[in-house]
Amino acid sequence: MNWTRGKVIGHGSSAIVSLAKGFTPEELSVVKTAELTKSTLLQNESRIHSSIRCPYIIQYRGHDVTFEDGRLMYNIFMEYASGGTLGDAIYRQGGRRRRLAEAKIKSYTKAILRGLEHLHSNHVVHCDIKGANILLMKDGEAKIADLGCAKRVTDCPSADSSHPVLICGTPLYLAPEAARGEQQSYPADVWALGCTVIEMATGQPPWPGLHDQVSALFYIGFSGEVPQIPCFLSEPAKDFLGKCLKRVPEERWSATELLNHPFVNGAEDVVTGEEHKPKLDTPTTVLDQGLWESRDGPDSAPKDLVQSSHPDSPSRRIQRLLGGFPISTAAAIPNWDIDENWMNVRSVL
Fold it and tell me: Region entry Disordered: which residue ranges (predicted)?
């Protein structure tokens, strides 16, 4: 079939990600492309992704091979998520204290868990759960994306296997056993989910003091430590993270067990608008301990920044009128209906 390649929206380690029109009659799609002779990883992603059908995982729409600029290119197509990534959602909070409200964290975590439960029930390990690989749809629904590192459990060598173990994923989100080069199975995804919850809660990856990848792998694998759990989270949230961040993989709860945890399966919080209303900047009594707990840590925001994040401040009201995007970036929101910079592509298969 014929389709039209749009602008590049991302680069991976093994593929270029672009928009695509025409693969489905009415919707934009995303196409991941690699040169055919260098597309082993992309073809593996296609094989695994094509077997997955779940509302909490980005939909796979097929693949083809095209001839472009004198080269054969391998392409896989997926649904387009117009809401960006979880990282984008955190960034749109603005200010230094970029983090999501706990009600939002709970909602996104539950969706990720449902996607992981489906993957694991189909004997697939994602291997790279993190905020950048969780996409948000137009209605705000969260879906797992990027199965480029995914493996079938039957393809994962055990720690006592004679086959070499290939470490897949992002170092700061790797479970200790994966960082040590041991088996990377379902519990590794659960550890990475815990790291992603910390990312949503703090606005930064876990292990903020680790910057060198080799040092990070050694520390995560052998230090005996776990990422710090934010003190301002609710007790159910802290307990949930404790179940995810067990250094011994057999002690971590499974995705199915975590779906029954009170943090994601308890009574829904009452939320007004996008977030809980911020606490007052000054405690009214000595019992207002939650205020001081929320200010703990080296990344605490100055008083003026905390005030500027209030949902009724002029800047936040303007952001809501602009659809929630930061004022500085609202004018740059792309309009994909414009026909400029699109390239017709003819499939050879």
Answer: 291-315
Give the separation between CA 175 and CA 169, rounded to whole angstroms: 10
Residues 100 and 71 in one domain: no
How confident is the model at residue 192, as a pLDDT? 98
pTM, rounded to two decimals? 0.75
Positions annotated as catalytic residues are: 128
- pLDDT band at 288, cuts 50/70/90? very low
Contact criterion met (CB below 8 Å) for 35 and 72? yes
Least confident interval from 153-167, 218-232, 272-286: 272-286
Please indicate, yes or no, whether residues 124 and 148 belong to a single structural domain of this protein.
yes
- Note the pLDDT tens digit of each residue in 134-156: 999 999 999 999 999 999 997 66
d(CA 86, CA 196): 9
Give the count of beta carbons closer than 10 Å to the beta carbon of residue 54.
17
Please check if 130 is assigned to a binding site: no
State the angle between helix axes of 102-121 and 235-244 in degrees (0 to 180), rounded to the nearest 10: 30
Tell me 37's DSSP state.
G
Tell whether the torsion through CA atoms of 259, 263, 269 and 273 is positive or negative. negative
Please check whether residues 49 and 126 belong to one and the same domain: no
Residue ending a domain, choose from 52, 80, 108? 80
Range(s) of the domain holding residue 65:
2-80
| CATH number, residue 245 | 1.10.510.10
Indicate whether 92 and 76 sit together in one domain.
no
Residues 126 and 252 in one domain: yes
How many independent structural domains does the chain possess? 2
Q: What is residue 310's predicted lDDT score, i.e. its pLDDT?
A: 45
Residues 62, 119 within the same domain: no
The sign of the torsion formed by the CA atoms of 325, 295, 106, 248 equals positive
Buried b / exposed e over 223-256, threshold 16 CB at 10 Å, is eeebbebbebbeebbeebbebbbbbebeebbbbe
